[in-house]
Amino acid sequence: MSFKDLGLAEPLLRAINDKGYETPSPIQEKCIPVVLEGKDVLASAQTGTGKTAGFSLPMLQLLSQEREKHNRPVRALILTPTRELAAQIGEELKDYSRYLHLRYTVIFGGVNQNPQVRAIKQGVDILVATPGRLLDLHTQNLLRLDNVEILVLDEADRMLDMGFQRDLNRIVDILPHKRQNLLFSATFSKEIKKLAQTYLTHPVSLSATPENTTVEKIEQRVIRVDKDRKTALTIKLIAEGDWQQVLIFTRTKHGANRLSQKLEKAKITSAAIHGNKTQNARTSALAGFKSGRIRVLVATDIAARGLDIPLLPHVINYELPNVPEDYVHRIGRTGRAGASGEAISLVGGDEVDYLTGIEKLLGEKLTRQIILGFEPQDPETAPIKKQQEQRPPRDKKPHNGPKPKHKQQNQSNAGDGAAKPKKRRDWRRRR
Ligand code: ADP
Ligand code: MG
User: Fold this and answer.
1) Which residues line the pocket of ligand 1, CB cutoff 6 A?
2) Does the global pTM surpass 0.85?
């Protein structure tokens, strides 16, 4: 199957060729023809599967088929949860639309609104926006949305997680009733299905991978370690492995800042990226990380969601997320573009419950490891029976007080659910 077979027109095919894409990804194969037919779509596919092009290419084609209205009202609205994602979609639109006469702009909060207002006044066919800034400008009467024909909700699950439900309702109320709706999500949760029922009309449901399965080529490691030893262990892993580009997830903004500072003290260049950072700080941190100037990026889930960070060999979960799906998103940061990756989770005694939830979602047990010199002392607070089956015999005694050194083993594997690297469905290699 080629992009041409999917019904895309010549100017788009040329732009795709310039980008170096050879074959459509599975989600693109399914999505593009349906969008071209004008139907509503509810699509789920894991991170990094090319969803942006999946909606952008057919959307651009539909918009270019129609005669441009002379005052260029907004005809397509793309909503996305974060500023970084909005900017990233803008970058892709720039590439895909280079041989078309369409205009777009990107608006988000945290920066001066005037340049955005000016761009809108000049007329844009496509508006990429975060919900807050969009409503803000609309309330100020600086923006009209009564000509919107296509609405895209990108990363809809994350928008719900971030509490945008009410904003979304308000925005949808403003839009014309008759419009095409495209909803993209990494997961197909109950909430997403409900959202789809409210916003979409007879949608075609598409999913390119089985629901919520993990990215397969990624090797997953779980290391049991005490909370107060995690920073030291992180530094050891990075230094001894000589890892040059590492993404670390923490649960809180403060945690991200603290860890980043400690890494800097250990002479490991690092930056934290989270919602409290200014837009400029976030952009420059990401750019520094991509260019290799910054070795470690410490991020919260929300900040990292959907960012296109290619070829990332190492992801560390400094803390496990309490939402199991977030684990899948996090480790989806590794092994992009056919590269293999390793995802390491540092698990304290109080996080074993989260681990169990993650294993349930994955449908597999993850091997616990213990690193010499970092043997955990804090007891696991999860259901003890189950956990003991997972652990090596020497761990059966309760951990009170330091254990004799000779009983430790370096990086011992516990349990038999070893995380074997599996083959990955790689659409860029397979064809
Ligand atoms: P998602 O939104 O599903 O997480 P993206 O749309 O951000 O994924 O795409 C991930 C990466 O894959 C981007 O760098 C994009 O340029 C690239 N990509 C998208 N489609 C193709 C394709 N058909 N062939 C090769 N690379 C692609
Ligand atoms: Mg995306």
Assistant:
1) 21, 24-25, 28, 45, 47-53, 306, 308, 428
2) no
CA–CA separation, 190 and 197 (whole Å): 11
Tokens for 88, please give them: 């990233």
| CATH for 4-207 (3.100.10.20, 1.20.1090.10, 2.40.50.100, 3.40.50.300) | 3.40.50.300
**Range(s) for CATH 3.40.50.300 in the chain?**
4-207, 218-384
* Residue with tokens 């129609």, as numbered in its chain: 66
Measure the CA dihedral 58/59/62/66, to 10°: -150
Pocket test for ligand 1, best of 21, 44, 209 (most atoms within 8 A of CB): 21
Ligand 1 geometric centre to CA of 53 (Å): 7
Query: What pLDDT is recorded for position 69?
Result: 64
User: Mean pLDDT per 10-residue run, the chain (431 residues)?
Assistant: 94 96 91 96 86 97 82 93 92 96 94 95 96 96 96 93 92 96 88 91 81 57 95 95 92 95 96 83 86 93 67 88 86 62 92 92 87 86 43 42 41 38 38 30
CA 202 to mean position of chain CA atoms: 27
Q: Which one of the ligands is nearest to 93 CA? A: 1
Tokens of 252: 């809180």
**Nearest protein CA to atom 10 of ligand 1, as residue:** 48
Other CB atoms within 10 A of residue 354 CB: 23
Give the pair of three-digit tokens for residue 306.
């959907």
218-384: CATH topology: Rossmann fold (3.40.50)
Residue with tokens 């200014």: 278
Pocket test for ligand 1, best of 2, 4, 6, 25 (most atoms within 8 A of CB): 25
Ligand 1: centre distance to CA 54 (Å): 9
Exposed (0-12), middle (13-18) or buried (19+): which is 393, by Cβ within 10 Å?
Answer: exposed
Take atom 24 of ligand 1 and give the residue whose Cα is closest.
21
Instruction: Find the ligand nearest to 154 CA.
Output: 2
Question: Locate tokens 């955005």: which residue?
Answer: 116
Q: Which atom of ligand 1 is nearest to the CA of 52?
A: 6
pLDDT at 338: 47
In whole angstroms, give the CA distance from residue 210 to residue 27. Answer: 12
277-315 as b/e: b if 16+ CB within 10 A = beeeebbbbbebbeeeebbbbbbbbbbbbbbbbeebbbb
CA torsion through residues 232, 233, 234, 240, sign: positive
CA–CA gap between residue 195 and residue 79 (Å, rounded): 14
